[in-house]
User: Fold these one by one.
Assistant:
Number 1:
Amino acid sequence: MNRDEYAIMRRVEDGHWWYKGLRGMLRRAWTRFAPAGPVTLLDIGCGTGANLQFFRNEAACYGIDFETEAVRFCRQRGDLRTAAASATDLPFAAASFDVVVSCDVLCHRSIADKRQPLREMWRVLKPGGIAILNLPAFQWLHSSHDVHVQQDRRFTKRETRALLRETGFECAYDTYWNSLLFPFIVPTRLWRKLRPLAASDLDAASGEGLSPLFGAVLAVERAILRATAIPFGLSLLCVARKASSPISRASD
């Protein structure tokens, strides 16, 4: 992201409805799929540290982000096991972690080969370990918000499952989310293709004053997801398990 976006993120992410909804989805994934016993977790693209703080009581947490500004905010929270590093070349030994979390990282425009971060996740995970991924959904929704947070790619289930298979993962669960608000947000995103904002949605405090209402909507949505997946949404959450050996780069 642009460096200025990290200051905006740090200001809003503890209380903004979207971030709280994301953590609700991460909680569901953790409850269903996290291994028992002492757990080590790596947050790849940890941003300003809200997810590290969220998981602090569940696991021994480590985080990396490409931007030193993000790491600085993490350390202000007390998350000292953080470092500036790339998702495409993780500074950890093989089989170091039980769980990796990666929220809106594969979509970044600096990552030309979207498989390389997944190869690195596979490498640092222990056998049977899980990766929890959150991704923006549907390329036709790419708008000025994506430009400001430097996202060049939005994903579908089919595309993501193919990437996971190619890199040695088995998809254990996936669903779109932020779905009930989808009909209201899509027109805004499409309009912003024609009339881009000068900054990201977060800088415009998108729905910040309505966080209790939007948060309640997402809570209802998570209740629905306990019974069935939803076929559309602004975001896509996947849980993948380390399985077979990843395809080598030589076969690309």
Number 2:
Amino acid sequence: MPAELRILILLNIPDIQSLISIVRASPVFYQTYVAARQDILNALVKRQFDHVDIAEAIAAVRSVGLHARTASNKEEIIALLDRRRRSRETIIQQQSTADMSMSPTNEPANCAESVRLLLLSARANFFMEDYCRTIPCPPWVDNTRWASEVLPLRLSDSEKARFLRAFYRLQTYCNIFGVPENDPDGGSRWFDTFDADEMWDLFFGTMPPWEVEEFGCMWAYLRRKYTRIFEEIALYSSRFKEDRPDTTSPACFELYPDCKYNT
């Protein structure tokens, strides 16, 4: 098989797991992948992010390790969130000026970042499928009818976009402002670097109200998943029950602009 045909096959692989499988199964395809790795990964990334602005996922990836408890991260956090917010402006400006030297907020910086984006996309899609299968029945719908006729939900493209956008934004929020699982700084939190108004203006204040609602719904869905896991563990561990960990999701009062922290 000609190399050009192998590259064409790899350029049309549907997901990262299929790409990993074919590359590991065939030394010839592995060599082809290595020779055209960036183009292959870029093509796969574009297909995976056809429902939502890729800048949201890029912000989630680049915010790892950029926690606001470290005061020296403040300027970089502000710059990252500003680039995410202005991503569409950047695309228009690049197209109008042909200035490709601008900050790459809408494309991965390298192969490693492409892989991280694809893995994050796979996790987002896993939770979206779980959401469609397990979303609780609202009180005004009969439980039997909900289970037999409604589930699994079939989301439209716009509904998928809203789910994924909220997922990536929650990941970005938790990376920057969330509660770390292990805090070596003895309990320092983001409000040692930002006050509540600054946090709101940087993050929630850049969203229209309905996108804040999306974020809140995603927070509620994932917190419910965590709570269920913790409850099952607590059944078999009295020590865990006494010292039950919190999730890295934001507290619900953080979703309102008039909140003030008592620090």
